[in-house]
Prior knowledge:
The protein has helices at about 20-25, 25-35, 65-80, 85-95, 110-115, 125-130, 145-160, 185-195, 205-210, 225-230, 250-265, 275-280, 290-295, 305-310, 325-330, 365-390, 410-415, 430-440, and strands at about 100-105, 130-135, 165-170, 170, 180, 185, 200-205, 225, 240-245. It has 3 domains: about 5-280, NADH:ubiquinone oxidoreductase-like, 20kDa subunit (Rossmann fold); about 280-365, Cytochrome-c3 hydrogenase, C-terminal domain (Cytochrome-c3 Hydrogenase, Chain A, domain 2); about 365-440, no CATH class. The protein has a 5-stranded parallel sheet, sandwiched between helices. The protein has a two-stranded antiparallel ribbon with strand order 4-8. It has a two-stranded antiparallel sheet with strand order 5-6. The chain is elongated and about 100 Å long. Helices cover about 35% and strands about 10% of the residues. Strand 5 and strand 6 (about 185) form a beta hairpin. With about 450 residues, it is α/β, with parallel strands linked by helices.
Amino acid sequence: MGFRDCQVVAPIALVGCDWARRIGRCYHEYRAAYSRTNVLAYVHCSVMPKHPALTRDLSGRGISRRAFLKFCSVAASVLALPPEAVGSLVESLGHSARLPIIWLSFQECTGCTESFTRSHAPAVEDLLFDYFSLDYHHTLQAPSGADAESARLDSMRRFQGRYLLIVDGSIPLARGGVYSTIGGRTNLAMLKECGEGAAAVIAVGSCAVFGGLPAASPNPTGAVGVLALMEQGLIAKRPLVNLPGCPPLPIAISSVLAHYIAFGRFPAVDDMQRPLSLYGNTVHERCSRFRFFEERKFVKQFDDEGARKGWCLYLLGCRGPLTHNACAVHKWNQGTSFPIESGHPCLGCAEPGFWDRGGFYRCIDETECTVDESHESREDAASEGQNLYEDNCVYCHSIDPGALRTDPNQIPHLLRSGEIRSHRRLQFSDEQLDQLGEYLKSRK
């Protein structure tokens, strides 16, 4: 059966090609790519083509078993699986069949798709994606219009109760959902239809999870997330995992997919249906600048001395203490960095309502910020006081001010009074005397 003799159900060849080759090809180039790589996965014929098990196809693609085992170890680590689970992951992935996936994009910006295509980990991850059948995806599929919708319906019919549904973007409910339609149908109607036959659902990105930026006050489109629709009974309840973030980490998407393929279920989740291995801790708890928070060393404005030294960004509005995500661990751009490490405060994009919590550069706790400022002022005063002591006092007193018998709280008062004749020659201002007092108190 040739390419022209069948209806392609939108398989996506993601193996061994860069971003330009994944997305930039025209339709005819996609056809040629499918023919060359033999990935005409699903066609209008009675029998679904059989694919070799993953491990049997490794050597032909130049992927060693060592690399495959490394990927499984990385995936198990990301998902916080016990060591004994690595063997099960290797066995299950090695013999996995192609998993049909329908990806619905609603009110979104395509950022989550961008993140998905940049999953790095070991290179064998790309090979793993070849064993998904991404049967419907607005951005990545070759067909369009009526052909695309026909492909979606065909996949739903063939794999009723077996396909994985991925939702990207919020769903508008206001005015009957007319603010976003696909092929003349509202997002809610399409989601309800696809959800009926899905084995499970993944909500990718903060828009699909919480409503995202489209739900920002006053939320003119009535945007909501997938979980809210399930709780309201507007769509069928199915096993659900939420991957918030704007966008979520690439490894968050790929590792959850790997877990589902290997074990037929999602990893353990919290009360918001987020994987505990990825969202169980705050960004703050695993931040590379955490020690500066403990030491109360804060950046006060961009490009000040603290910023150049990599101090904590808490005073500039960093929401790391409130945000549950794994950015500080897995990072972006193949593990290169993440916003805080690059010098910008966390915006809290993985939390509900982050877009309506006031200015991004306002400290999240004004009281705490005031305390921090006072603390830093005392530290600065003590530093200046140390200079005064070492320049004027060490000639008559111990170099260690802790050896002084006089109560350090009384020393500024005594110097101001002039009662100590030998100290009358010292012309300290009131500010300098306060600084000296702070230093002496800090050494007791």
